[in-house]
Amino acid sequence: MGKILTIHGGVPLKGTVRVGGAKNLVPKAMVASLLGNTPSVLRNVPEIKDVSVVRSLLELHGVNVTQDPQTGDLTMDPTDAKSASNRAIDAHAGDSRIPILFCGPLIHSLGQAFIPDLGGCRIGDRPIDFHLDVLREFGAVVHKGEDGIRISAPQGLSGAKLDLPYPSVGTTEQVLLSAVRARGVTEVRNAAIEPEILDLIALLQKMGAIISVHRDRIIRIQGVDELQGYDHTALPDRNEAASWASAALVTKGDIFVEDAQQRDLTAFLHVYRQIGGEFEVKHNGIRFYHPGGELNPLILETDVHPGFMTDWQQPLVVALTQASGVSVIHETVYENRFGFTEALQRMGATVQVHVDCLGSTPCRFGHRNFKHSAVVMGPVDLRGTDVDIPDLRGGFSHLIAALAAEGTSTVTGIEIINRGYEHFTEKLISLGANVELHEAGVKVGS
Ligand SMILES: CC(=O)N[C@H]1[C@@H](OP(=O)(O)OP(=O)(O)OC[C@H]2O[C@@H](n3ccc(=O)[nH]c3=O)[C@H](O)[C@@H]2O)O[C@H](CO)[C@@H](O)[C@@H]1O
Ligand SMILES: C=C(OP(=O)(O)O)C(=O)O
């Protein structure tokens, strides 16, 4: 039986939380360790589900993974890498999106890869066509089976000239992790340039990779025969930081987010200030707080970096339910990221979702049946209710709405939160939240 979180709302969250290493970098950095011929050391590793899934997959492939009990730093030694049985790999079907990134490294070290069905948040169809297309351009052969995808490269991987249909984060990572040891030069146009991608490039550069980043989203990679292990400290999780910032605004609180980095949050901070949230950038983090008074509504579009990150959208929508007036949000990255607003409406929020592109940039989802724009009217008084967490950020949004609401909420599916927020309940309690966690009828923390 899963855990149940009971939330007694109405308490402003106040105090300090430290964000861990980025969920959207750390598991990929772990995959990169397979490319080296000596051990890699990864620091600032969060205790989240994707890390344990990738650790298990690395171990199945013969990588010796050890963790420092004090610091949590991971050492990954790939010198005895070996093929794993499809059946063992398939036990991780549906757990995470990261397995698709094993393709290049496994082909380089073992000649082939088997990829189980992917997991991740259900916020759209999330196809992997771009990934498979670029792998084919590198010379890989893709066999789609009932249980997963088998990829081989009888002639090895060769550099390619690529132009992505969209600056996909995962596909850009696929290109990097495949091209660094491919024969010859790769050039990728329309690449993603998110901070986590640049951190992955930094780490690959430490391994000996030859990579240059150019203007207009162009990345060039000169393949090399061998790479060494790396010693790298993961960048802090900007999405966790933005989530806590929204929590401060929604609960009328004051949260110091230790290790939050301004340079990775510029677009978020700009919007936060427009709404009427206050922040103070310090040498070791950022303080986020509600200054009192009314919040302002706004018009917002999510976009690829350096735009407003889609993973910030869901928690911020809760803050917009507290703004005085009408806000319009156009989600241009995922076609189905407003499902979470149904529970917000049950809590008293006024949110309408539309299939039209309600923004200045017509997106890939316009004139199709995707409810990818939202109109939010505020301010409203939120009231507690029962919620079942649908996905990572939608779940965080429900939790902060419940924390701000009048009355009690009962939350199931809380395990999903562990995909992106380490020690979540402990952090909430340290911020003064009035919550109780029950497991199979037993209270385990309050
Ligand atoms: C583990 C991880 O890092 N997850 C992040 C990563 O996801 P992920 O790497 O999956 O996201 P992508 O940037 O690839 O996806 C962006 C868009 O491209 C589409 N697409 C992508 C690949 C493909 O083969 N075909 C295709 O159509 C997707 O459906 C989506 O609509 O970047 C997203 C966008 O910043 C973030 O929200 C996720 O938190
Ligand atoms: C969409 C997200 O993650 P994933 O790509 O791992 O599903 C997220 O972190 O909000």
Automatic annotation (TrEMBL):
<dbReference type="GO" id="GO:0008360">
    <property type="term" value="P:regulation of cell shape"/>
</dbReference>
<dbReference type="GO" id="GO:0009252">
    <property type="term" value="P:peptidoglycan biosynthetic process"/>
</dbReference>
<keyword id="KW-0961">Cell wall biogenesis/degradation</keyword>
<feature type="binding site">
    <location>
        <position position="311"/>
    </location>
    <ligand>
        <name>UDP-N-acetyl-alpha-D-glucosamine</name>
    </ligand>
</feature>
<comment type="pathway">
    <text>Cell wall biogenesis; peptidoglycan biosynthesis.</text>
</comment>
<dbReference type="InterPro" id="IPR001986">
    <property type="entry name" value="Enolpyruvate_Tfrase_dom"/>
</dbReference>
<feature type="modified residue" description="2-(S-cysteinyl)pyruvic acid O-phosphothioketal">
    <location>
        <position position="121"/>
    </location>
</feature>
<keyword id="KW-0573">Peptidoglycan synthesis</keyword>
<dbReference type="InterPro" id="IPR036968">
    <property type="entry name" value="Enolpyruvate_Tfrase_sf"/>
</dbReference>
<keyword id="KW-0670">Pyruvate</keyword>
<keyword id="KW-0131">Cell cycle</keyword>
<feature type="active site" description="Proton donor">
    <location>
        <position position="121"/>
    </location>
</feature>
<keyword id="KW-0963">Cytoplasm</keyword>
<comment type="function">
    <text>Cell wall formation. Adds enolpyruvyl to UDP-N-acetylglucosamine.</text>
</comment>
<dbReference type="GO" id="GO:0071555">
    <property type="term" value="P:cell wall organization"/>
</dbReference>
<dbReference type="GO" id="GO:0051301">
    <property type="term" value="P:cell division"/>
</dbReference>
<feature type="binding site">
    <location>
        <position position="333"/>
    </location>
    <ligand>
        <name>UDP-N-acetyl-alpha-D-glucosamine</name>
    </ligand>
</feature>
<feature type="binding site">
    <location>
        <begin position="23"/>
        <end position="24"/>
    </location>
    <ligand>
        <name>phosphoenolpyruvate</name>
    </ligand>
</feature>
<comment type="similarity">
    <text>Belongs to the EPSP synthase family. MurA subfamily.</text>
</comment>
<keyword id="KW-0808">Transferase</keyword>
<feature type="domain" description="Enolpyruvate transferase">
    <location>
        <begin position="9"/>
        <end position="428"/>
    </location>
</feature>
<dbReference type="InterPro" id="IPR005750">
    <property type="entry name" value="UDP_GlcNAc_COvinyl_MurA"/>
</dbReference>
<protein>
    <recommendedName>
        <fullName>UDP-N-acetylglucosamine 1-carboxyvinyltransferase</fullName>
        <ecNumber>2.5.1.7</ecNumber>
    </recommendedName>
</protein>
<dbReference type="GO" id="GO:0008760">
    <property type="term" value="F:UDP-N-acetylglucosamine 1-carboxyvinyltransferase activity"/>
</dbReference>
<dbReference type="InterPro" id="IPR050068">
    <property type="entry name" value="MurA_subfamily"/>
</dbReference>
<dbReference type="GO" id="GO:0005737">
    <property type="term" value="C:cytoplasm"/>
</dbReference>
<dbReference type="InterPro" id="IPR013792">
    <property type="entry name" value="RNA3'P_cycl/enolpyr_Trfase_a/b"/>
</dbReference>
<keyword id="KW-0133">Cell shape</keyword>
<feature type="binding site">
    <location>
        <position position="97"/>
    </location>
    <ligand>
        <name>UDP-N-acetyl-alpha-D-glucosamine</name>
    </ligand>
</feature>
<dbReference type="Pfam" id="PF00275">
    <property type="entry name" value="EPSP_synthase"/>
</dbReference>
<dbReference type="GO" id="GO:0019277">
    <property type="term" value="P:UDP-N-acetylgalactosamine biosynthetic process"/>
</dbReference>
<keyword id="KW-0132">Cell division</keyword>
